[in-house]
């Protein structure tokens, strides 16, 4: 079954490379980090992270040269990391360590204003979203047990 999923990802990725449906995303989305409008570069996707691992194990925030204006990513600091990618080809480059993402910022609250209908994916679930305002932040945090003998 696993090769079937890889084949489907290949098909959808190839389709995305040819169609570029999220080109000019900066004209279709407004990004606010802690209520500050962040100008979007020519990215085709905005990714909001609350853990280090994304996209089959890529630690996107930690790739490349660290920027002094951003803190290292931590799972327990209440911050969300926001990155951008230029294309599905750029995502493939991230997968094999040939590129780094565009760091857009860190915030406790992220707001996206979708100005037109766009594809959205949260926690692996994709859908087409009508124009909307989406707010993302921490609601609560669960206590987690860990081994103290390390």
TrEMBL record:
The keyword Ribonucleoprotein does not apply. PANTHER family: DIACYLGLYCEROL KINASE (PTHR11255), DIACYLGLYCEROL KINASE EPSILON (PTHR11255:SF118). Residues 2-126 form the Diacylglycerol kinase accessory domain. Signal peptide: none annotated. One of its GO terms (cellular component) is membrane. It comes from Araneus ventricosus. Pfam families: DAGK_acc. GO terms for molecular function: ATP binding; ATP-dependent diacylglycerol kinase activity. GO terms for biological process: phospholipase C-activating G protein-coupled receptor signaling pathway. Keywords: ATP-binding, Kinase, Nucleotide-binding, Transferase. It comes from the Eukaryota. The gene is DGKE_2. The keyword Transferase applies. InterPro entries: DGK, Diacylglycerol_kin_accessory, NAD/diacylglycerol_kinase_sf. This is Diacylglycerol kinase epsilon.
């Amino acid at each position: 079954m696993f090769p079937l999923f890889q084949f489907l990802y290949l098909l959808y990725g190839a389709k995305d490379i040819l169609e570029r449906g999220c080109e000019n995303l900066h004209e279709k989305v407004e990004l606010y980090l802690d209520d500050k409008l962040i100008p979007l570069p020519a990215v085709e996707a905005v990714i909001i992270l609350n853990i280090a691992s994304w996209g089959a194990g890529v630690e996107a925030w930690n790739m490349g040269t660290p920027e002094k204006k951003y803190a290292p990513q931590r799972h327990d600091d209440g911050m969300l990391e926001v990155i951008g990618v230029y294309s599905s080809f750029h995502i493939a480059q991230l997968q094999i360590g040939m590129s780094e993402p565009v760091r857009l910022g860190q915030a406790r609250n992220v707001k996206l204003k979708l100005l037109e209908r766009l594809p959205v994916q949260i926690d692996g679930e994709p859908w087409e979203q009508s124009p909307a305002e989406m707010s993302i932040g921490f609601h609560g945090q669960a206590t987690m047990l860990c081994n103290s003998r390390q």
